[in-house]
Amino acid sequence: MMKTPRKKLPPKAPGNFRKVVVEELLAFWSFLQSNWYYVLPGLIVAVLLIYVVRPVPPKTMTIATGQAHSSADVVAHKYQAFFKTHGVDLQLVPSKGNQENLDLLEAGQVDAIFAQGGLPLGDNSSHLLSLGSISYLPLWLFYNGAEIEESDLNVFLASRRTSINIVGSSTRALLEPVLQGQGIDLAIPGLVELDTAKSIQALQERKIDAMFLSASMASENLRALAEMPGVHVYSFKFADAYARHYPHMSALTLPAGAFDLHPAIPSKDIKLIGSTMDILTTDKLHPALQLLLMQATEHFERKRVSYFSHGKFPAYIDTRIPESDVARRFFKEGSPLLWGYVPYWLASLFDEIWFYLLAIGAIIIPLMSFLPSYRKTHAELSMESCYDELRQVENEMVFRRDMDAPITANLLDQLDALKDKARALWVPTGNRTAYYDLRAAINIVREDIVASLEMPDHRS
Description:
The protein is of the alpha/beta class. The protein has helices spanning 17-34, 36-53, 71-85, 98-106, 153-158, 170-181, 196-204, 220-226, 239-245, 287-303, 325-333, 344-368, 374-402, 410-423, 432-454; strands spanning 60-64, 89-93, 112-116, 128-144, 162-163, 191-192, 210-214, 231-233, 250-254, 260-261, 264-265, 270-282. The chain has three domains: 60-134 and 277-342, D-Maltodextrin-Binding Protein, domain 2 (3-Layer(aba) Sandwich); 135-276, Periplasmic binding protein-like II (D-Maltodextrin-Binding Protein, domain 2); 374-458, no CATH class. The chain has 15 helices and twelve strands. The strands form two sheets. Strands 1, 2, 3, 4, 5, 6, 7, 8, 9 and 12 form a ten-stranded mixed β-sheet that branches. It has a two-stranded antiparallel ribbon with strand order 10-11.
């Protein structure tokens, strides 16, 4: 019966793996000891260079939000909690809305802002950078009374008292082009200027008939209006046309039952128009904090229930404002390689310099082949030092012999001390032959001295 040939097993990892690792660490430590006068200045220069070019990010950051319970305000509190898990205090600065946020950023009073896509930019906007859009920001029109079919906006507003929010708000910035396109004068008596909180109260108390609101689905104000008895959502029948006339706008559809399924709120699909909510900053904001904002956006996008899109954000949509280098890499490559394994600022730093590290390594590694192995250098220098001492003892013996001077046992004591010194040396793999050659050389000199002591002329 023929024997079945045994399968060859892959070779196992060496059993002395721990010993090899320890030896390599000892070799590196001995290299540092031997070359500290080169290594230490190099480390100091590297640390100073990193600190000057890319200092450690600050522990605090400020961001302008908007009116209380607005989309930006609600989202900002989520970002604040995310930043806290990474040891950064994100301080929220409330404002009247879009224009005030932009003024605060241009004045350097905040590090970043939540802004509406397509917002009018001032003369000092050349230094602004975009971290992309984080969600859609629809324009809503809530009204009291019986639910109506799709209607012309001019006809709808002509018979109603409607709040168009305040100048500088996100609602006003998104609404004004729409009203102007429809030929509606903002100064007509039926349009009133109330902030969001006052508008909601006035609508609830029936002091106004309708109100405009720019808000994402995360807005607490939006939820309060959707749940208000007798209040309905206006459907913009020209939503697709608005999107084509105004590049910063998109046509959106809110499905029936989006707010509640029973009874269904809204009772039918609603056509909306909307822009986007963006995060803007300047080149003064530390790149690591920019990355933290990008990661926060992606983190919430994965968990967010979206009625208009899913997985679309963050995205670079408003191209009037240049995207930051951090955002560009994030949109192209996603999260940094080390994200989640090291502190966020270190992951950000590696994300920026990994290419340069590879380039430097491609140059240095071949050059290292021309240099002595670092793991052997210290041992070789230590053994050379022992050879120098051995040579001194041997020269002393030869000198005394040539001068007919007595050769004393003191030379043997020096060799014994040298032998003890040699035994205490750390000898890495690859240097052991040289080590035992040293031991043999010590014994050879010792034999010469002993032979000289035993000669008749040198006996005591």
